Amino acid sequence: MLNKILNSRTAYLLGFFASFGLVALALVIQTQYNLEPCPLCISQRIVLMVLGLLFLMAAIHNPQKSAWVKFYALLQILTAFGGAGVAIRHWYLQVHKDEMLVDCGVGFDYMFDNFPLKKALMLVFRGTGDCAAIDWTFLGLSIPQLALIAFLSIAAYAVLLAKERI
């Protein structure tokens, strides 16, 4: 039964719903606890949405040839690893907040409205004082730690899908 699900469009749709479900969960946490997301939090949400769209594209295409299966898997895995990298950077900033000069930087929207794209991206990935704050935890894990687990799980899921379809 599991093989049948993994070889159908449903498997890709599960990846789509998981990715966008995590974004929805982040929005619920944000509104429930009145949290202001930092640039790295927003970046992780964007990566999750891109992952969701990649899974949706694969579900629509429903690849049967191994080359297409590998192509989608490669895109999904690389995107998930990119998100994991952002989560690791975010976690690093939280762990080393005492060693940094922490100041509350400008907001995400302001950066992209007032700086060239290259400069704005450099500011986003450098992080701000907001990125170093731990405002919410679940089971003792901060948001970037939970995001890292999610990104690695999604990458593992993409590998499983590819393995079952090839």
Name the CATH class: Mainly Alpha
What number of domains?
1
Number of strands: 2
CATH architecture: Up-down Bundle
| Contiguous uncertain segments of 5+ residues | none
Main sheet makeup? 2 strands, antiparallel
Helix content: over 70%
Label the overall shape.
elongated
| Mean pLDDT score | 86
**Which fold name is given in CATH as the topology?**
Bromodomain-like
Could you give the order of strands across the largest sheet?
A: 1-2
**Computed Rg:** 17 Å
Number of helical segments with 4 or more residues: 8
Strand content: under 5%
Structural category is mainly alpha
Order of helical and strand elements: HHHHHHHEEH
Looking at CATH, the homologous superfamily is DsbB-like
Q: What is the subunit organization of this protein?
A: single chain
What's the short story on this structure?
By secondary structure, this protein is mainly α.
Feature tags:
single chain, 166 residues, mainly alpha, two-stranded antiparallel sheet, 2 strands
Q: Overview of this structure, please?
A:
With 166 residues, the protein is mostly helical. It has a single domain, classed as DsbB-like (Bromodomain-like), CATH 1.20.1550.10. The chain has helices at 2-6, 9-32, 39-61, 66-95, 108-114, 117-126, 129-132, 143-165, and strands at residues 137-138, 141-142. Helix 2 runs antiparallel to helix 3 and helix 4 (66-95) packs antiparallel against helix 8 (143-165). The longest helix has 30 residues, at 66-95.
